[in-house]
Amino acid sequence: MIRVEVGAAAIDVAAELAVHDGGGHGASASFIGRVRGDDGLTELFLEHHPVLTATGLDELATEAAARWKLGALTLIHRVGAMAPGDTIVLVLASSPHRGESLAACEFLIDRLKTDVMLWKRESFADGRVQWVEQREGDHARAERWD
Amino acid sequence: MTLTVSYFAWVRERMGVAEEEIVLPAGAATVGDLVGWLAARDERGARAFAEPGRIRAALGGAMVGATAPLGDAREIALFPPVTGG
Q: Which InterPro entries does UniProt cross-reference here (chain A) (predicted)?
């Protein structure tokens, strides 16, 4: 069962885990990405492309399911305005054994940084507003899976 | 030929619009040609496309490079490198 979603609604981690875990899988790996409140950050805005972002997430999930034997996969990305502490992304990967669920989870986190159409804009308490630049390290981590 | 061009993130902010219809000038055959033409067209284009190497493009839903031919495409998206996840 693959569930992929992108939207502005808050991510209910407990509810998503309950849905995901319905099958009673042997091993479930999870990743929760949250907004950091560093340097007086007041808002993180995630811009997306309505079609390309959804397509990118679908393709990533499909690739993960092809690479590893997964009983269930949940990939949810939030977009729009968020506050420190809010959940941005949720990845849940389940398989009969831990190795596959952990690898799939890490693969998805790494490739999300480079393969999906999302752009981050940070607003700070002192009035600064800046678009986040792509980091070279993100590419290095993503390319490990090539 | 008219082309719907959509912009994202700081490219959108610098252009001042999310989307526009343009009549492609004669001789603009590739994505790079289009970006160059937008940069030369006016002040906002000059700001948005001052560094063409930082611009990414998606043509008909697929990522393409600067040398990709526009062909008979009807829509193109122009944006900075992604920073998501």
A: MoaE_sf, Mopterin_biosynth_MoaE
Separation of alpha carbons B60 and A52, rounded Å: 10
Cα(A31)–Cα(B57) distance, rounded to whole angstroms?
Answer: 30
Q: Measured between beta carbons, which residues in chain B are less than 8 angstroms from residue A133?
A: 81, 83
pTM for this model (two decimals): 0.90
The helix/strand count (H/E) of chain B reads as 3, 5
Domain coverage including residue A99: 2-143
Cα–Cα distance measured from residue A52 to residue A84, given in angstroms and rounded to the nearest whole number: 26
Task: Inspect the interface and report whether the beta carbons of B82 and A33 lie closer than 8 Å.
Answer: no
Q: Does A142 touch chain B (CB under 8 A)?
A: no
- Subunit contact B84:A113, Cβ cutoff 8 A: yes
Q: Does B16 map to a domain?
A: yes
Query: What is the tens place of the pLDDT at every residue in A27-67?
Result: 999 999 999 988 899 999 999 998 999 999 999 999 999 99
Is there a contact between A55 and B61 if contact means CB atoms under 8 Å apart?
Answer: yes
Q: Are B7 and B15 in contact (CB under 8 A)?
A: yes
What CATH number is given to the structural domain containing A68? 3.90.1170.40
User: Any chain B CB within 8 A of the CB of A3?
Assistant: no
- CA-CA distance, A32 to B75, in Å (whole number)? 35
